[in-house]
Amino acid sequence: MIRIQARTEPSSIMKLVSPILAIALTLIFGCILFSAIGKSPAQALHVLLIAPLADSYNIGEMFVKMGPLLLCAVGLSLCYRANMWNIGAEGQLLAGALGGSAMALYFIDSESALALPITLLAGMVSGMLWSAIPTFLKLRFNSNLILTTIMFNYIALYLLIWAVHGPLRDPQGFGFPESAMFADSTLLPTLFESSRIHLGIVFAIISAFIAWFILSKSHLGFQIRVFGADEPAARYAGFSSKKLSWFVMLFAGALAGLAGISETTGPIGQLVPNVSPGYGYSAIIVAYLGRLHPLGAIIAAMFMAVLYMGGDLAQIEMGIPVAVVSMFQGVLLFFLLACDFFINNRLAFSNQATN
Amino acid sequence: MDSELIVQILFAAVKTGTPLLFIALGEVICEKSGVLNLGQEGMMLMGAVVGFLAAYGTGSAGLGVLSAMLMGCVMSLIFAVLVLHLGANQVATGLALTIFGTGLSAFIGSGVVGQTIQGFQPIAIPLLSDIPFIGKILFSHDILVYASFAMTFVLMFVVNKTRIGLTLKAVGENPHAANAIGIKVLRVRYLAVMFGGMMAGISGAYMSLVYTPMWVENMTAGRGWIALALVVFASWRVGRIMLGAYLFGLASIMHLVLQGLGWSISPNLLAMLPYVATVVVMVIISADKFKEKLLAPRSLGKTFDPRQMA
């Protein structure tokens, strides 16, 4: 007789095992799916997990994808800890790309050493602005943050598309909806020869450590943790929910904006309509997979980047639609949420029938 | 602006509002039971692609709608098991459902992108369609639009006048009290969530079988999210959802209207209108904090565990 029993205390081991279990279950699901459409499961696993890390070029590409995922996920982790349901990382990323790129185009003839820092800052400020509006609407007018941040994702997307068709379009670009290529002074330096790895990944990892420091070492972080764990207690202690909300949302907006501008000044080198293949949405899953812990997000973002690479390779080598990546992401989050059930519950084995 | 143009605009507003009406009716029932399903967009996309594939394969648009309804139910069941049985966070699970549905629909629909089918044809209702203005605006549509009218009135009756409606509201307002008087809270919530899935499925089928009629990745363009805002706009009242759906329908064809009037605004800027309108409406509706607290089902979004006491 197996039955489900509530644990007296949440299991801290299960908290760490759960993501690993969820990843394993997702891979099993992937194998079954690939066999169902007549592909070999072994080849599928190879393409999804091993091929992305097989040579130095692919590893480099993995880090290129990991950067924006991690930047967005670190911010979201703090937001979710503080019960701020920010689904707007995608829009904040696009706003950062748009605002920062406008600055980069302003510096198109400049060789100033300040051009790059100012461009990056413009991206961060744009991302912050894009998260500030829904935050203000929530705090001042009590509007639903989930829905407003989602709407701002769509608005940012159309704004960006409008900009590359209009004011920011390259005059010498034969009418393509793209900006001019940025000047070297506004491009992020690459870290190694023969790879596209750029400073963005460094920003991402530094931001994860900063967020970790804030969360676990500062009084502000303590307040965020109390808020997430027990909101009435936090209010009783006199913590200002407004101040915390502003802090986590602006922090997340700045990081997502930095992710956006790091994409256009990094691997892309200009502003294009499809800056992001949904990094801002995937980052939600990364944040959960990393247990809403900034350092956990590093490992989770790495896994997610491998999955993105795997999706690209599956399309090239096996002719599988790239949408398979977002399907796997959904499945992964399903399994994770299901496995999390066992943080608070356990299976009890006994010979007696229960009453 | 002449009256013929106004009639055409309002006709289009009803047509554009219909998928929103279907999906928001499903979501309001789900939310009335206390469950917030953010997976609407994913369920709708799955309904759209499965409806299209079934209609494409069999040549029958009716079978397409049925398959879409079934698919919506299956999708909502994944959500229901995680949220109701495993106590998973409703926001996260709903997001997972949307991400999953977006990917899966693009995956299984990749073979039929750009194909067209014979969707539902308009049927003018005798007599009613001859009424000036109203007849053209309301009674010259396809059968699914009429089904949405019928569904609205049936739900208004069921929610407001029957025991079923009372049970549903009891579960959403106070699941512990409902449980104490012998209502099977989880069973009611399962049914409500599956009803929501079914309606999202029809809504998707309307997009791919009537509105376009074809399948394109992400063709619902955020309508599942707008429907969630619509429920707030309607203060969880079935009748107001109909009004709201047509107003949102009007907002999303405003760009055609403005272009028709000769305004030269970039279509990309005008495409933002429905989303901006949604934000504006949300702000106006929610600004009165006290009122919203009074209207929203009290247990909305909260996990109910029958093992725990209130």
TrEMBL record, chain A:
Native source organism of the sequence: Marinomonas rhizomae
Key words of the record: Cell membrane, Membrane, Transmembrane, Transmembrane helix
Gene Ontology molecular functions: transmembrane transporter activity
Name this polypeptide is given: Nucleoside ABC transporter membrane protein
Ranges annotated as spanning the membrane: 12-37, 57-79, 91-108, 114-133, 145-164, 197-215, 244-261, 281-308, 320-343
Keyword Transmembrane: yes
Secretion signal, residue range per the UniProt entry: none
UniProt membrane topology term: Multi-pass membrane protein
InterPro entries tied to this protein: ABC_transp_permease (IPR001851)
CDD domains, per the entry: TM_PBP1_transp_TpRbsC_like
Protein origin, superkingdom: Bacteria
Assigned GO CC terms: plasma membrane
Principal location class: membrane
Localization, UniProt: Cell inner membrane
Automatic annotation (TrEMBL), chain B:
Gene Ontology MF, one: transmembrane transporter activity
Subcellular location: Cell inner membrane
Sorted UniProt keywords: Cell membrane, Membrane, Transmembrane, Transmembrane helix
Chain segments annotated as transmembrane: 6-30, 42-59, 65-88, 95-117, 137-159, 190-209, 221-238, 245-263, 269-287
Chief location of this protein within or outside the cell: membrane
UniProt topology in membrane: Multi-pass membrane protein
One Pfam entry name: BPD_transp_2
Keyword Transmembrane helix on entry: yes
GO terms for cellular component: plasma membrane
Protein name as annotated: Nucleoside ABC transporter membrane protein
Protein species of origin: Marinomonas rhizomae
